Structures are given as structure tokens and as C-alpha cells.
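User: Design a sequence. Structure:
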């Protein structure tokens, strides 16, 4: 039996090891951590000195800090996922599925935190727009950019056939669940005005009987029941993917991939294998290998994520506070702010990284000279061939961007949108029920229409488990169309009245809420 002194000794060893891990992480990522610290310091200073910086600068600095925090979550999720893949007695495919679930959850961390803060601050109209914006971003822009980027070098890319077919069903049921309350409200009888209603609400007469606390109560009950069903569907789908026989399908997918994708995957696997051989340790089950070859204990990454959660929560609250002020003093529509700007925080870091790395790769490809390898005619021919071969290799490596040639181009953003639809959205409705916030699934007609269109487009693009450059450009173009229309869209006043918080619908109509009359008055 272990003595207390033994436990203290083990705790001391673990603490020293964790501190050593943090020193190693700082040594390898010091520049990123330095930029993150500076951005967080500026964002927090701007919030507490808003009269000096202004709300616009505060929003920008908080937005920038959230971008760097998102990268920290992505990094921590990948490292913890490496532990899951290495350890355990379950099948490798099952461990890989658990890793994917962890990485997807970390990818949704920023959006989920923003959504929860908006819920507790009663910014429900902005919350609904942000939910739709997150789904559109991960359904259209991110996978479309990945398909277009990889399509510049390959004719087509392969997706996992089983995962693609399942994603079609899950994505469609999530969108249809949002459409059900909307169809319910649209189908209600718009008869004569009931007694007690009047024209002072600013709404058309046919709408007055529908915009009431009684109708909102029915929609809330309906939304809560649908939310429970969505959670059951998501849990069942994860259980199926975790226990399903995906090994053979994964092998078939690997065999069917294009030559470029196969070569890229082979190179990555060889590099990982060499790194693992050079850094093999007896306690490999409790450590993960990062790209620098250093081994860290899993508790190091958990502690890093805990710190990131605390920083992100405070920064997200500051971001939402500045958002309220910006919407009050500017003419920016709430729809555009929620549909486009707020969700973009999760893609900004990867987007900037892709642009920078691609620009550097193109510059090296165009300007880096080839080394001559010949001294005579015979050797000159061989040398020129080697030069051409080296140039082809540089051309190939120019597109070897891990951000867009691996998980991004193989459907992970669609998995992220599925989790947000089937898991986080119903959880927000249930959280609102628990904390007495009237959050429901009756969304704006424009938002539901765009979401249905995006879902159909994604299903058409991925129905054959293949994608190409043209399909990626189509997805990007549709997202640009939605962003253009949202810039001038004032919002649906009836939905805004139903989301009035904490007042009743009648009080909201009498006093006027954001979206019911303020936005319409601008036109």
C-alpha cells in the first residue's frame, strides 16, 4: 500500500514533468505564444479602457485574440487525439473516430462559447443569426475553399463513402428540424384580428394574432421536444460510427484516392514513422509526438485547454459587449453581423495561414533556382533532367498545405456543422429552457431558406464521394451570394418579437425590439 510520502513524491515528479513540458512548448512555439499574449493584453486593455480605444477597436482586438485562441484549441485537440490513437485496447478505427470527435468538438469551442454568452445576455436574435452563420461557414466556405485549393493540382478528391452517405442524412435532418417550427408558423391561419389587438404594434393586421405569448409558448414546447430528438439522433450516429465496421471501407478509400493524394499521405506517414522511431520511449502510451519530435504528457494538453477555456470565456464576453455597442451606433444589419462576421472568427486563422503559406510557396517556386548537376554533355542531360525533376517536386510541394489537403478537403468541416446542428443547437434550446430564456427553433425565413439551399448544394456536391475545383468554386460563390444579400436584409420582425428577452411578446411589440422596427426604419 502506497504511503502518503509516495503520493507526494509522485505528485512532485508529475509537477516537475509538466513544468518541463511547458518550457519545451514555449521553446518551440514562443513566437505564437508571444503574439497571443500581446493580442490578449491589448483586447483586455481595450475593454477596460473603452473610452480610450472605442468600441470598434475593442471588437477588432477581441476578434483577433479569439482567432489565436481558436488555433490553441485546434492544437490541443490534435495532441489529445494523438494520445487516444496511441493508447487503449480498442480497435484503431474506433480510437481514430474518438480522436475525430475530440477535434471536431474543439473546432466548435469558439462558436459554442459565443453562443452561450449570447444566450445568457439575452441577445437571442443575434444568437440565431450566428447559429445559421456557423452552419453556412462550415457547409460552404471552408469545405469549398478546401475543394477549390486541392482541385488546383488534382482533378478530383475522394471522400469517405460511408461517412459521406451518413453525413447527407444527418445534415438534412438537422436542417429539416429547424424548418419544422418555421413551417408551423407559416401555416398558421392569418384570419381576422382578435379582440384586444390594435394597430399600434407596427405590424400588419394579419400578423397581430400570431405574434403573441400563447403562440410563443407553443413554439417553445415544440422546439424543446425537437431538441431532445436531435440529441438522440446525434448520439446514435456517433455510436454507429464508433462501433461500425469502417476498417474495410477506409482501406477501399485509400486504394481509390488519386495519385497526388496517395503520394501526400505516404510522405506524411513516412515522416511520422521516422519521427516515432527516433523518439521512441517506454511510456509512449502516456505521451504524444508533436511535429517538433518532443514528447509531452497528456495532462499538459488538458491543462493548456483549461487555461484556454478561461481566456476564451472572458474574451468572448468582451467581444459580445462590444458587439452590442457597435450594432447600436452603426447601420450594420444584425443579420449580416451574425451570419457572416461573428462565425468567421473560426476560419480567419486558417484562411490567413493558407494565404501566407501559399504565397511563400509560389514565390519559392518562381524564384528559387535549380542547382546544376553536370560538368559535361552527358552529365548535362542528366543534370537538366534532375533540375526539371526538382522543379516538379517543388511544384508538388507548393500545394502540400496540411490545412487544406487532409481533413479540410475530406469533409471535416461538414462534420463540424453536423455537430453544431444536432448537438450544440438543441443544447442551447435546452439551456434556455433551464435558465428561463425564450430560445426556440423558429428562425428567420431568409435564414432557413439559405440553410436549406446550402444543405442541398452540399449533398449534391458530395453525393458521389468525389469533389473537384469547379464544385468548390460553386460552394464559395453561393456563400458570397448569401453574404451580399445579408448586408441589406433587415430581418423578420415577427421572429424578433418572439425572441424578446426577458420581456413578454406583448411588451416587446409595445416598446419595439431590435429587428421589428428599427432596422425597417432605415429603408
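Assistant: Done.
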Amino acid at each position: 500500500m502506497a504511503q502518503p510520502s509516495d503520493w507526494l513524491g509522485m505528485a512532485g515528479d508529475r509537477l516537475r514533468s509538466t513544468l518541463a513540458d511547458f518550457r519545451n512548448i514555449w521553446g518551440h512555439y514562443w513566437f505564437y505564444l508571444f503574439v497571443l499574449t500581446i493580442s490578449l493584453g491589448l483586447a483586455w486593455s481595450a475593454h477596460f479602457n473603452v473610452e480610450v480605444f472605442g468600441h470598434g477597436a475593442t471588437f477588432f482586438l477581441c476578434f483577433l485574440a479569439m482567432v489565436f485562441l481558436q488555433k490553441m484549441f485546434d492544437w490541443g485537440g490534435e495532441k489529445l487525439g494523438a494520445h487516444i490513437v496511441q493508447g487503449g485496447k480498442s480497435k484503431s478505427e474506433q480510437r481514430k473516430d474518438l480522436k475525430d470527435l475530440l477535434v471536431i468538438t474543439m473546432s466548435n469551442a469558439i462558436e459554442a462559447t459565443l453562443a452561450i454568452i449570447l444566450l445568457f445576455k439575452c441577445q437571442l436574435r443575434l444568437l440565431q443569426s450566428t447559429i445559421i452563420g456557423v452552419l453556412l461557414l462550415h457547409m460552404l466556405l471552408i469545405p469549398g475553399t478546401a475543394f477549390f485549393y486541392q482541385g488546383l493540382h488534382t482533378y478530383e478528391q475522394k471522400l469517405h463513402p460511408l461517412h459521406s452517405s451518413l453525413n447527407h442524412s444527418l445534415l438534412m435532418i438537422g436542417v429539416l428540424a429547424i424548418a419544422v417550427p418555421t413551417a408551423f408558423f407559416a401555416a398558421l391561419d392569418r384570419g381576422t384580428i382578435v379582440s384586444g389587438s390594435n394597430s399600434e404594434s407596427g405590424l400588419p393586421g394579419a400578423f397581430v394574432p400570431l405574434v403573441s405569448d400563447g403562440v410563443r409558448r407553443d413554439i417553445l414546447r415544440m422546439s424543446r421536444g425537437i431538441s431532445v430528438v436531435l440529441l438522440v439522433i446525434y448520439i446514435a450516429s456517433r455510436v454507429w460510427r464508433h462501433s461500425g465496421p469502417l476498417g474495410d471501407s477506409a482501406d477501399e478509400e485509400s486504394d481509390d484516392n488519386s495519385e497526388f493524394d496517395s503520394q501526400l499521405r505516404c510522405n506524411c506517414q513516412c515522416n511520422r514513422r521516422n519521427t516515432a522511431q527516433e523518439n521512441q520511449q517506454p511510456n509512449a502510451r502516456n505521451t504524444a509526438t508533436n511535429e517538433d519530435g518532443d514528447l509531452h504528457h497528456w495532462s499538459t494538453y488538458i491543462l493548456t485547454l483549461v487555461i484556454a477555456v478561461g481566456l476564451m470565456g472572458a474574451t468572448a464576453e468582451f467581444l459580445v459587449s462590444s458587439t452590442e455597442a457597435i450594432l447600436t451606433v452603426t447601420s450594420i444589419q444584425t443579420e449580416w453581423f451574425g451570419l457572416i462576421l461573428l462565425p468567421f472568427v473560426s476560419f480567419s486563422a486558417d484562411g490567413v495561414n493558407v494565404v501566407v503559406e501559399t504565397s511563400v510557396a509560389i514565390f519559392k517556386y518562381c524564384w528559387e533556382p535549380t542547382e546544376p548537376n553536370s560538368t559535361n554533355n552527358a552529365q548535362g542531360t542528366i543534370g537538366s533532367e534532375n533540375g526539371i525533376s526538382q522543379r516538379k517536386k517543388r511544384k508538388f510541394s507548393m500545394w502540400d498545405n496540411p490545412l487544406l489537403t487532409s481533413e479540410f478537403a475530406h469533409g471535416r468541416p461538414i462534420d463540424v456543422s453536423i455537430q453544431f446542428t444536432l448537438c450544440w443547437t438543441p443544447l442551447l434550446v435546452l439551456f434556455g429552457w433551464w435558465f428561463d430564456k425564450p430560445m426556440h427553433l423558429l428562425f428567420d425565413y431568409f435564414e432557413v431558406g439559405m440553410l436549406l439551399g446550402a444543405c442541398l448544394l452540399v449533398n449534391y456536391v458530395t453525393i458521389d464521394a468525389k469533389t473537384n475545383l469547379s464544385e468548390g468554386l460553386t460552394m464559395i460563390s453561393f456563400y458570397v451570394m448569401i453574404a451580399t444579400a445579408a448586408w441589406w436584409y433587415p430581418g423578420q420582425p415577427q421572429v424578433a418579437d418572439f425572441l424578446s428577452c426577458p420581456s413578454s411578446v406583448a411588451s416587446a411589440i409595445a416598446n419595439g425590439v431590435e429587428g421589428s422596427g428599427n432596422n425597417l426604419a432605415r429603408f
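Residues 55-86 form the longest helix (32 residues). The CA atoms of residues 228 and 260 lie 43 Å apart.
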